[in-house]
Design goal:
CATH class: Alpha Beta
Largest sheet: 6 strands, mixed
Radius of gyration: 16 Å
Number of domains: 1
Low-confidence stretches: none
CATH architecture: 3-Layer(aba) Sandwich
Order of helices and strands: EHEEHEEEEHHEHH
Strand order of the largest sheet: 2-3-1-4-8-5
Mean pLDDT: 96
CATH topology: Aminopeptidase
Strand content: 15-25%
Number of helices: 6
Helix content: 25-40%
Number of strands: 8
Length: 216
């Protein structure tokens, strides 16, 4: 049996919900193709997020880990290409911490690439009618912090065969109603997108070789 770990974040920045956790928890226990999905809620706190991730990996020994986070302002599901070794908080985390220009892991590489088939995920999401695009920046807040920590764990203390990466999702409509002009996506669509992302990640080992770049 293959274990799949999906993580979503607690609400942050005075919001009442976080769409990443609302979507991820809906998939807890979902089974497909010999795999079982396990959902874990992660604190939006530098440092604590990585400790919680490590504990979940140690508990489940998953072969696939996908972190999910909110990207307010984006209109598409965006699998992330690269995690960078940089914490630079535009706002404080939920513990009041605001690191500026600090490494996620001192002495670690400057960055890691996702080991998910990000272009195949985008292809399959678009084929299902769900807006999607490759993202080349996961930011410098706790989402990137978790993403980098995950990829560093895979590089230095791997579970055999484990692959991982990170996906950003838009606001939910109930969040966007307070932010005129902000794009959003329904919870049902996000859940459907994550089902596709998991299935594609299990099925596809070598990513597509097609354009997914951006001019800026």
């Amino acid at each position: 049996m293959v274990n799949v770990l999906l993580t979503g974040f607690e609400p942050f920045d005075k919001d009442a919900i976080n769409p990443s956790w609302e979507a991820v928890r809906s998939l807890d226990g979902w089974r497909l193709e010999g795999a079982t999905v396990h959902a874990r809620r992660i604190s939006c706190v530098f440092g604590a997020a990585l400790r919680e991730l490590d504990a979940a990996i140690d508990e489940l020994r998953p072969q696939l880990v996908i972190g999910v986070g909110q990207a307010g302002g984006r209109s598409e599901i965006t699998p992330e290409r690269v995690a960078i070794n940089m914490d630079d908080g535009r706002i404080c985390d939920n513990a009041g911490c605001q690191p500026i220009d600090e490494p996620v892991v001192a002495g670690a590489p400057v960055g890691y690439f996702s080991s998910l088939p990000i272009k195949a995920i985008v292809r399959d999401l678009r084929a299902a009618g769900i807006p999607a695009a490759v993202s080349n920046s996961a930011g410098t807040f706790v989402c990137n912090h978790l993403f980098f920590g995950l990829m560093h764990r895979i590089a230095t203390r791997p579970v055999h065969g484990m692959r991982g990466g990170f996906i950003h999702i838009p606001y939910l409509p109930e969040q966007a109603t307070r932010l005129p002009g902000a794009p959003s996506m329904s919870l049902d669509a996000v859940i459907a997108a994550l089902r596709i992302a998991v299935a594609t990640s299990i099925e596809v080992r070598e990513d597509l070789r097609e354009t997914g770049g951006q001019l800026h």
